[in-house]
Design goal:
Structural class: alpha+beta
Strand content: 5-15%
Radius of gyration: 40 Å
Distance between the termini: 43 Å
Largest sheet: 5 strands, mixed
Order of helices and strands: HHHHHHEHHEEHEEHHEE
Length: 377
Amino acid sequence: MRSKYRSLKIRIILQTLGISLIVACIGYFVLDIFVDGVFQDPFAKTVVYIFERIGMDELEAIRVYRLIFVQNKTMIIGAGFFVLLLLSFYLGMSKFTTYLRQVEGGIQMILNESKDRILLPSELNPLENKLNEIKGTLKEQRRIAEESEQRKNDIIVYLAHDLKTPLTSIIAYLSLLNESPDMSEEQRAKYTGISLEKAKRLGELINEFFEITRYNLQNITLDKKEFYLYVLLEQVMDSFAAVFKQKGLEWKIEVDDKILIYGDPDRLARVFENLLRNAVSYCYPNSLIEVYGMIDGDNAEILVRNQGKTIPEHQLNNLFEKFYRLDEARSSETGGAGLGLAIAKEIIELHDGTIKANSQNEYTTFIIRLPRKKEEQ
């Protein structure tokens, strides 16, 4: 791109030099031919002849000619060159003004969201390509924003609909408990347990509403410090032990204990919690969830893998967009607001890292790369 702009600059300089050369030629014509030629003989004779025709004798006419033209020769030449300077400035600026008007028209097309391609003169090809690139980028950003807003609205509708189910069940079972004081202890315990599970689900749905609001309002900031990655990952995995046991899942963690990270441990813990929560939601029952951490040059590479239904490529590319959920999650008991992976990506990128997903042969793997801090020798 720099070479293209350099080429444009050279073209403009050459055009300016061309205009200057033309002005120099005109100046030479004025000085050498007109002033030193015409003024010296034909012009002088013509002026003297005109003066004689209006009643002056020859000597008087020559004296007046010299008084007006010869003695003011320097001023006349200066005025002539000043006019030429204005002319050259006008010619040069008119070209730039034309370019600016055309660029302004291109910018206006961007503002008006025109579907037509921006076209500029061949001299402005680099700028034309850049404006069209900006136009395409803004169009893509608008599309993503609109899709994100639509997804958010859809999720709110789904959540609002899903709220009715556990709430209706809670009311129904509590009503039965209230209306049947002589109910057996076994039956009472069963209905109480169901009501408790539905109340927990209701709480999760309400939290998802708050999560959507917090995501729109939050500005993530980092409180960085040094910590060993394996300590953080083991703590996060331990916090999921009850969840793993409830779903009959096994888990495995292998992390190099020498990996030192300079980052925000609380924020990164949230990243891995979101990834594990996602793994639990979409893994097969009684399967294995694996977490690996290794050194890769100046980076730490962390893998979070679960066994479950293979995610199609077109859905895999959208996983990290906010409010995106796999279709099957909309009707499941585990489908969230679609913010976990979007938040994880934002936190990882704030740490100058990357995150991506891979899904094949019924295994889905999230691959995270974080800059690691080398221990002082």
